[in-house]
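Working notes for the structural subgroup meeting. M.R. asked for a predicted model of this chain before we commit to crystallization trials. I am recording the input and output together here so anyone reviewing the notebook later can reproduce the run.

Input as submitted:
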Amino acid sequence: MTSENPPFTADMQQRPFWWEAAPPYPATAALPDATEVAIIGGGIAGLATALELGRQGVKALVLDREAIGWGASSRNGGALSGAGSLGKVRSDLAEVFGKAFLAELAEEGEAAFERFEALVAREELDCDYIRCGRFVGAHAPKAMEGLKRRAEMINEAGGTEQAFLLPRGRVREEIATDRYQGGMVLLRAGALHPAKYVRSLARAAERQGARLAGGVELLGYRRELDGGFVLQTSAGTLRARHLMLATNGYTGPATPWQRRRLVPVASFMIATEEIGEERVRAALPRLRVYGDTKKILYYFRPSPDHRRILFGGRASFVDGDVTRAGRTLHRFMVDLIPDLAAVRVTHCWKGNVAFAFDMMPHVGIQDGVHYALACNGSGVVGMTHFGTVAAQQILGGSNRVSAFARIPFPTRPFYTGNPWFMPAIGMAYQLRDRLDGWHVKQGGKT
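Returned structure, recorded in token form:
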């Protein structure tokens, strides 16, 4: 397709496809003078914290400068797994943490997935959840070795074979492409409708007594001598016994310690027009969720009704134009699955993903402020789990401290939260993928 014939429908929307069924939750509770727990960030982590606190008899107040669920929690691809997300962008975890501690991290990740499924059932969350498995494509022959290590880690943590490798000759069992050199199938993985999940989580938190207030921004705070907090917000001042931060890729200047440890990166997605389940199955025979091992990775999946394909990736390493990124993602999709060349796009959108410098998620407490941050592109299960962990910390701890709470949260000298270096990193990632033998062909009609 040329610039005169772009890959968009006439009514293409620059907003998440997910919002068609579940727009951000319109919660506008009035601010009280005081609350036991103030949670900043109305996404998955913040709502999971509020839900767990409510189940233990503590009523929390959740604030978000946008509508509840407006951020990445309702914009992501809706793919989820447990320990399968560990090491997605790093191959040196065993060397860095040691095998024993890595095993502890992996076991917690696998247990978090099981607890997530139990949460969905217990709270009767309406989110189109299904355990469908994940396929991770190897973009280069050497990437298979990294997938082999990941599969071994997952299987050791789960106690059964939950992950296995496929050679190149069997890739088409999973996806209609010849681009991947093999891959890994992860059985303990699933898919959901992320916006429905956030909305259902918000309603569950409200049922347990949480108050949700969208359109309220944290401007600053100070800690009192008694250990409590005074919060200055765009809607007034309030006191809180405990303060919890769950802002991830939208962390602002009011919390500079956390902001210095997060790198916000724009991730982009497109949704195709309806092409019918038969064509979707022809492209993605197992109807799983999908990703790959490139530095500039792709992630994609069928829509919950199996009539569309949703495709995402790092189409730009600056907070760029959504339409331009949509064209790039369409080209990536067609390069990967040529049979989709004539398929048009109905929705393009973006959302901020929060990365840590060590590429690991973090939960803990700093100077009295609790936090659950750095989803690193795999936040549905992780942030649900870490929100629950943060709630347990606020309540006084649990029988077992999270392994992730024992990981130092690093920053870099002179970094203040502005990722000015991302264009250079994007160029380096492109070069790395090219050196590995991956290059994007011109997809579609020219």
